[in-house]
Write a structure and sequence with these properties.
mainly alpha, about 260 residues, globular, about 75% helix, single chain
């Protein structure tokens, strides 16, 4: 199994932010106290991941960081101040990295005309459509054999839709919804700020990964190469997602102790 440090970094970022932002001596209304402790640490981590290059993980991390800061009560104008440089840096790397730029252009072409999109986008749409309402049956999907790229990782949601149909996908979405709602309920029930930020951060990370992966498969977002939590084949992603659930369960048990 290949270990991806960027996946572990997602988990550590949430722990770091939850612990740091729960410090009563930190004044989150002061922009200086937000810049100096976080920009060097988080900025260096994001830069290293960009150099891999892995823009999809950087997007997830950026949204996760901004989400936790928002939940911690950071002013919106400070979030915008932090978000604009991130967006500018991401845009720069998209223009520099040829294959990322090609993905954006293919996505725009697919939105205007599905037949003009990239091979991945077209096959994902065809795979979802082939499943219909009830699907072809578990294990009987044909698109994953010769046509759909990465049916066990990036596009497993499309492969699931082909075999289990729209009804099967609704079941999957319902299960994801239950997990996310339970995470939010656990966060809201915490009696201390650290527990609240930790639970909310873990839940938010899962939501961002789920939303982006499904958005890519349904042609709502450009291809990013992100795994679908608990479903995609990938050891590092599965370990981190399981760790998020483990933290939530521990916080829930502590809540009832």
């Amino acid at each position: 199994m290949t270990v991806q440090p960027s996946e572990l970094f997602k988990f550590l970022v949430i722990l770091y932010l939850a612990f740091s932002l729960s410090n009563p001596r930190r004044n989150i209304a002061d922009l200086k106290q937000l810049i100096f402790p976080y920009v060097p640490v988080l900025g260096l981590g994001l830069l290293l991941i960009l150099l891999e290059p892995d823009l999809g993980t950087v997007i997830v991390l950026s949204l996760t960081i901004l989400g936790i800061l928002f939940l911690a009560g950071v002013r919106l104008k400070h979030l915008v101040t932090a978000g604009l440089p991130l967006a500018a840096t991401g845009t720069f790397f998209v223009m520099v990295l040829g294959y990322k730029k090609a993905r954006i252009m293919n996505y725009i072409a697919a939105v205007l005309n599905p037949l003009d999109g990239s091979y991945q986008v077209r096959q994902a749409a065809l795979t979802l459509g082939h499943g219909g309402l009830f699907g072809t049956g578990l294990g009987d999907g044909r698109q994953k054999l010769f046509f759909l790229p990465y049916p066990h990782t990036d596009f497993i949601f499309a492969s699931t839709g082909e075999e289990l149909g729209l009804l099967g996908l609704l079941v999957v979405l319902t299960l994801f919804f239950i997990i996310l709602m339970r995470g939010l309920k656990i966060a809201a029930a915490q009696s201390d700020r650290f527990g609240y930020l930790l639970a909310a951060g873990m839940t938010w990370l899962l939501f961002v990964n789920i939303a982006i992966n499904i958005g890519v498969v349904t042609v709502l977002l450009p291809v990013t190469g992100l795994a679908l939590p608990f479903m995609s084949y990938g050891g590092s992603s599965l370990v981190v997602c399981s760790a998020c659930i483990g933290v939530l369960l521990n916080l829930s048990r502590r809540q009832h102790a």
